[in-house]
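Lab notebook, bench 4. Continuing the backlog of folding jobs that were queued last week. Each job is logged with the same field layout so the records can be merged later without manual cleanup. Today's entry covers Orotidine 5'-phosphate decarboxylase, a 308-residue chain. Filled in by technician R.K.

JOB TYPE: sequence-to-structure
TARGET: Orotidine 5'-phosphate decarboxylase
LENGTH: 308
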Amino acid sequence: MIDRLIAKIEKTQNPTVVGLDPRLSFVPQYIKEEAYRNYGKTPKAAAKAFLEFNKKIIDGIHDIVPAVKPQVAMYEQYGAEGMQAYIDTLQYAKEKGLMVIGDIKRSDITSTAEAYADGHIGKVKVEEESYTVYQQDCITLNPYLGSDSIDPYMEHCKNYDKGLFILVKTSNPNSGEIQDLDVGGEKLYERVGKMVDQWGQSLIGKRGYSAIGAVVGATHPQQAEKLRGIMPKTYFLVPGYGAQGATAKDLKGYFNQDGLGAIINSSRGIIAAHQKQPYQSKFTEKEFYLAAREAALDMKEDLQQIFR
Ligand SMILES: O=c1ccn([C@@H]2O[C@H](COP(=O)(O)O)[C@@H](O)[C@H]2O)c(=O)[nH]1
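JOB STATUS: finished
OUTPUT FIELD FOLLOWS
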C-alpha cells in the first residue's frame, strides 16, 4: 500500500489528501432540492445529496491529488443510508484511480478488532462466500488499547496490501491533556510514536517506508519534528492544514530529506472552497467542484515552498 501511495504522490507531484467530510451546509442548493424532492427532508435525502456532492468533488480533483480521506462520522450520523453513501463514495473514488484513506479511528479488544479489520481492510465471509465491503486502501486507528488491539489489522495489511495511520499526536487544541503526559521521562506521544515505528518494522515497502503510518497534526510542528526523528520510516498523515489554521510554513519538519514521509490533509478548505474567498467570487454555486479543484491546486503550490 505505501509504495502505491508514494507512486501516486510522485505522479501527481502533490502530497495532498482531500478530506471528504460533507455537511449539508456545504452542499449546493440545487443538489439538496433534488434530493428533498425525491426523498423528502430525510436522512436518505441527506445521504443522496452527499453522494452527488462527493462525486462532483472527486470528478474535480481526481487527476491532481493522490488520495481522498472520507470521514466516516459525516455519513454514519445519517444511519444506514449515510453508510451506503460512504460505501458508494469509496467505490467511486477507487473507480477514479484515487487512493482511499478511511478515517474511521477504530479501537477495540482483539476479537472485536478482527471484525473491524475484516470489514474495513479485509474480507467478510458469509459461509463459503467472501466480500469486500469497504474499498479502502488504509484506515485510521486509535492505539489506546495497545498492541493486541492493532495485531488483527497488521495481519490484513500483510495479506491484502493495506495500510494504517495510527493516532500519535492529534491536531486538536487539547490533545496534550493526554498525549503530552510524562511517562517515565518522555511524552506519551513520543512513546506511542516509538511503538508505532516498531509495529511498522515488519511492513517496510520497497521505498523504505512502512505501511503502518502515524497521524501527526499540522498544528503541532515542534512535536512533529521530534517524531520525525523518532520514526524515520513512518509515513505521517497530517490533518490541520487550512481550516484548523496550519500553513505550509509549519510543515517542513514533517518531511524527510527525500521529500517524502508526509501527506497533508485538507477537508473543509477544499470541499467548501466555493463558500470562501477568493473562490466564491470566481465560481457559481453550481461550479463548486471547480472551486475545489482550484483550492487543491493552490494548496499544491503552497506546499511546494516546503521543498524549495
Ligand atoms: O488529529 C486529527 C485526526 C483527524 N482529523 C480529521 O481530519 C479532518 C480535518 O478536517 P479539516 O476540515 O481540514 O479541519 C477531519 O476529518 C478530522 O476528523 C483531524 O482533524 N485531526
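OBSERVATION: The chain has one domain: 2-302.
SIGNED: R.K.
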